[in-house]
Amino acid sequence: AQAVLVNATIDDTTGDSLTGAFVTYTPPDAWNSGATCGNACAVKPDISKLNGGTWHDSTFSFNGGPHPNVPLSATVSFNGSAVYVFCAMSRSSVSPPGAVDITFLLDGVAVDGYTEPAMGSAGFEYDVPMFAKESLPSGMHTLTVQNGRQGGSTSLMILDSIVYTYV
Ligand SMILES: *[C@@H]1O[C@H](CO)[C@@H](O)[C@H](O)[C@H]1NC(C)=O
Ligand SMILES: *[C@@H]1O[C@H](CO)[C@@H](O)[C@H](O)[C@H]1NC(C)=O
């Protein structure tokens, strides 16, 4: 019989639809939760366009903020054979600056990156598929989405959801 592949969604805030596991954010105070920051959010995407109406954002800066030059990470474990990461992006180069420099690590190894300058117009992009990896050996994997790199340029990451495929 053919194995049936099914997707599960790990929401940035409410976690894994299948197991209830949550995303771990490091360092925790480098991340803003769109579910709780309300009017204080510097980054305000349209929640009607986000999975579950929630997001987590962080800004990497090599010389600013509470954690200068420390890459900021979101980590999840999943039992599956494929994984996809969806983010929002600010189009603006100033408010908030939307340039992105993200590295994806699977089981501790950097496997891909997503680097884009800000588009320089207004508003946000949604459901941007920043990372996809299929044909993984079925089983437990750990994905780390790392915002910024040591000595690198300023990067805004707005995590919306992580989708994985299980058998
Ligand atoms: C799971 O979701 C990804 C991303 O949306 C999609 O490309 C893939 O076809 C889906 N897989 C299944 C088994 O539905
Ligand atoms: C992962 O899922 C497979 C298929 O459902 C299951 O057989 C296996 O026990 C799971 N592994 C873990 C570590 O949960």
Report what the structure shows:
This protein is an all-beta fold and 167 residues long. The protein has one helix at residues 34-37, and strands at residues 6-11, 15-16, 24-26, 32-33, 56-60, 72-80, 82-90, 100-106, 109-116, 124-133, 139-147, 155-166. The strands form two sheets. Strands 1, 2, 4, 5, 7, 10 and 12 form a seven-stranded antiparallel sheet that branches. It has a five-stranded antiparallel sheet with strand order 3-6-11-8-9, with no helix packed on it. Strand 8 and strand 9 (109-116) form a beta hairpin. The longest helix is centred in the N-terminal third of the chain and has 4 residues, at 34-37. The protein is globular. The mean pLDDT is 95. The chain binds 2-acetamido-2-deoxy-beta-D-glucopyranose (NAG) (2 copies).
Radius of gyration: 16 Å
How does the major sheet shape up? 7 strands, antiparallel
- Strand content range: over 45%
How many individual β-strands? 12
Q: What distance lies between the first and last C-alpha atoms, to the nearest angstrom?
A: 12 Å
Helix fraction, binned, reads under 10%
Weakly predicted, low-confidence segments: none
- Tell me the number of helical segments per DSSP (H or I, 4 or more residues long): 1
Roughly what is the average pLDDT, rounded to an integer?
A: 95
Taken in chain order, the helices and strands follow as: EEEEHEEEEEEEE
Ligand catalogue: 2-acetamido-2-deoxy-beta-D-glucopyranose
Shape: globular
Give the helix/strand class. Answer: mainly beta
